[in-house]
Design goal:
The complex is a heterodimer.
Chain A: E1 4-14, E2 25-36, E3 41-45, H1 52-60, E4 67-72, E5 75-76, E6 87-90, H2 102-113, H3 118-132, H4 147-160, E7 165-169, H5 177-194, E8 197-202, H6 205-211, E9 214-219, E10 222-227, H7 229-234, H8 239-244, E11 251-258, E12 261-263, E13 269-271, E14 281-286, E15 292-307, E16 312-318, E17 321-327, E18 338-342, E19 348-352, E20 358-360
Parallel strand pairs in A: 3-8, 3-9, 6-7, 7-8
Antiparallel strand pairs in A: 1-2, 1-4, 4-5, 9-10, 11-12, 11-14, 12-13, 14-19, 15-16, 15-18, 16-17, 19-20
Helix pairs in contact in A: 2-3, 2-4, 3-4
Chain B: H1 2-36, H2 41-44, H3 61-69, H4 76-107, H5 113-122, H6 128-141, H7 148-152, H8 159-169, H9 174-182, H10 187-198, H11 200-216, H12 219-224, H13 232-239, H14 247-277
Helix pairs in contact in B: 1-14, 3-14, 4-8, 4-11, 4-13, 8-11, 9-10, 11-14, 13-14
Classes of the chains: A alpha+beta, B mainly alpha.
């Protein structure tokens, strides 16, 4: 088990052959500072091209960092080859060796880089196969396996070496929704049991929220925020994080501001307590579940009602702004109906228009649990 | 519905009929070669001009083969052995070089890679005739003339083979190589434990191409080899070099010369088709 430190990690690519690229380089990851604790499950999340996979590949040693330092414990590993870093990686497409049986796929790393004898290797492979529930598949080749089975083999292959760090690059994205949910739980259980530091990359914010001890949100190569899931959701550092985390996405409105007083055409006004804004407008954010739909009002025109079974998503427009509300199933307005919307001030987020930095985040309390197990 | 099926069947029948006809046209010279190898010289051209040659096999195969064996200047069976040794060693060596070259070009980034690749492809434009003199001087200076190596080495890094393997290896996902690197494989282990075994079909297809190329090579072996080291094409040309051409011997030699090619092709046929079509369809 190993702690990971990223100290000013930067990765850029030479782009001298490409037109219209300033400074002839593409910066994929810029000045990322991050400490991942021993045994922690950290999830990198962000949109495509945000640098999350590049960061993971730098940690793995598959990409050379162009700046900054990567440390495992106290050891700087920038110049170490992947094989010398004591890390195991699970790839998006599983990357199983197509010509080898499951047994050979799992034992390949041990045969190459350990001093174990053949019986010892066999016994380890059998133990891991039992742990992953793939004992019956050991003599099959990858093309004879389903996606879920291949994923288990790929996980088995990374576990068998007992590495200090697990790296996972979107390992569930090729599975169907049901299997994905199952494997999500399995990976979490596995990580809990083994206690190995795990860095997991996904573009799926639901997966990130569900799995991570902490989440690191990246955008355009820059680290936006690192925090536990609940904090990321309730206290996003900026407008990007607020918009990226949460499904359906948070609603944003532009509201006028004069010093400390916010006003909207609807008559809404709000006094900022300890913050003064120089801009003329700020961005007001409100989560879909914090919007209340009121019949008889005249704020929003309903466009679509999505009935999810346990709740409804009400889509509509307020002026030019598209809005979504998450409501109990009993709230079911008709399309084209005019409805009122309201929200508690404690549920409101405010972001600076220019920089997107958070001015105010949710202040409402989470209701205590009905029962403790 | 019934009519549609009938029409489809008719088209299928017509299509197969056409393919069978084309195959027969292509196979006919080979069939005649085999038949002629079983006939005495007098019977080969018995039909005369404008008539079909005799198409029923005779019983002179062994007699023709014995007559062929009796000609020391041809030394046919020795040439057969020479060709086999050269073609087998060449195929093995060229597979190694072509797969290594192809792997480097497909999976590594290095300076001037594109220029190098273009240079390799460019050598395909040079006709063998043009290369004969410089190659001969090179091989002589290396002290290799009249040796198997003189025929094996010059095309061991066969440009077409490097191109073929590069194209095939581009289909290997990078993550497969990265997984092996994470598993502790060195770059060479990557090549022979992961890349080569996943490329069996392409290697088999290339093996057929390389074997046929070397088996049929004529001009260069003629220049660089002397009696006793001749390969099959050179030996066959020697059958024709006297005042009278012994067609019976020529036919029996040619018939025997195509046997190894058939054997190689049939052994690797399944892989050959897979290899040639590799990457053509998404699986």
């Amino acid at each position: 088990m190993t702690a990971i430190t990223l100290d000013g990690l930067t990765k850029s690519y030479d782009a001298t052959d490409m037109d219209d690229i300033p400074d002839n380089e593409i910066v994929a990851v810029e000045d990322v500072d991050l400490e991942i604790e021993d045994g922690e499950f950290l999830v990198f999340v962000g949109p495509s091209g945000c640098g999350k996979s590049t960061t993971l590949r730098c940690i793995a040693g598959l990409e050379d960092a162009t700046g900054g330092e990567i440390r495992f414990g106290e050891t700087v590993v920038n110049d170490l080859r992947p094989r010398d870093r004591d890390v195991a990686m699970v790839f998006q497409n599983y990357a199983l060796y197509p010509h080898m049986t499951v047994r050979k796929n799992i034992s390949f790393g041990l045969r190459l880089s350990s001093a174990l004898t053949t019986p010892e290797i066999d016994s380890r492979v059998t133990d891991v196969a039992e742990m992953m529930g793939i004992e019956d598949l050991l003599s099959k080749t990858p093309d004879e396996l389903s996606g879920g089975q291949q994923q288990r083999v790929a996980l088995g292959r990374s576990i068998v070496r007992e590495p200090g760090i697990f790296l996972m690059d979107e390992p569930l994205s090729n599975l169907d929704a049901k299997l994905r949910a199952e494997m999500r739980t399995e990976i979490q259980e596995l990580q809990n049991d083994l206690g190995v530091t795990t860095v997991y990359v996904t573009h799926d914010q639901t997966e990130a929220m569900a799995m991570g001890d902490r989440i690191a949100v990246l955008n355009d190569g820059l680290l936006q925020q690192v925090a536990p899931p609940e904090e990321i959701y309730r206290r996003p550092a900026n407008e990007f994080v607020a918009g990226f985390i949460g499904s359906p996405s948070i609603n944003f409105f532009d509201v006028s501001v004069d010093g400390q007083t916010l006003t909207a055409p609807s008559g809404f006004s709000y006094e900022l307590e300890d913050h003064s804004v120089e801009d003329d407008t700020v961005r007001l954010g409100i989560r879909p579940e914090d919007l209340t739909i009121e019949e008889g009002g005249d704020d929003m025109t309903v466009t679509v009602v999505e009935k999810m079974g346990n709740e409804n998503f009400i889509y509509g427009t307020v002026g030019d702004v598209e809005v979504v509300a998450r409501t109990p199933v009993t709230v079911r307005p008709e399309p084209d109906q005019r409805v009122g919307i309201s929200f508690a001030e404690s549920a409101m987020y405010l972001f600076e228009s220019e920089t997107g930095a958070a001015i105010k985040t949710k202040t409402d309390e989470i209701e205590p649990q009905a029962a403790q197990f | 519905m019934h009519e549609k099926l009938e029409k489809e069947a008719l088209w299928q029948f017509g299509g197969y009929g056409f393919l069978v006809a084309v195959t027969m046209v292509m196979m006919f010279p080979i069939y005649w070669l085999v038949v002629a190898s079983t006939l005495p010289q007098s019977a080969i051209f018995a039909g005369g001009a404008g008539e079909l040659p005799r198409l029923i096999p005779g019983r002179n195969f062994l007699a023709n083969a014995e007559a062929l064996a009796a000609r020391p200047e041809v030394d046919f069976y020795r040439s057969m052995l020479n060709s086999l040794v050269i073609a087998v060693v060449y195929t093995g060596l060229a597979l190694l070089f072509c797969s290594m070259g192809g792997f480097a070009l497909a999976k590594y980034e290095f300076k001037y890679k594109r220029a190098l690749f273009m240079g390799i492809l460019g050598t395909l434009l040079l006709p063998t005739n043009l290369l004969v003199i410089p190659l001969f001087l090179l091989v002589s200076n290396m002290g290799l003339s009249n040796s198997y190596w003189a025929v094996i080495l010059p095309w061991a890094a066969y440009p077409l083979g490097i191109f073929f393997m590069k194209q095939a290896m581009q289909s290997i996902p990078d993550s497969l190589l990265e997984a092996a690197r994470m598993d502790g494989a060195s770059e060479f282990q990557l090549y022979y434990r992961v890349v080569l075994p996943s490329m069996k079909s392409s290697l088999a297809a290339l093996a057929v191409i390389l074997f046929l190329f070397q088996w049929n090579l004529f001009l260069w072996p003629l220049v660089v080899l002397r009696e006793g080291k001749y390969t099959i094409p050179v030996a066959i040309s020697k059958i024709m070099s006297n005042d009278m051409i012994a067609y019976d011997q020529l036919m029996v030699a040619s018939a025997m010369a195509i046997v190894p090619m058939f054997v190689v092709f049939i052994l690797l046929q399944r892989h050959f088709v897979n290899g040639i079509l590799g990457g053509a369809v998404k699986e």
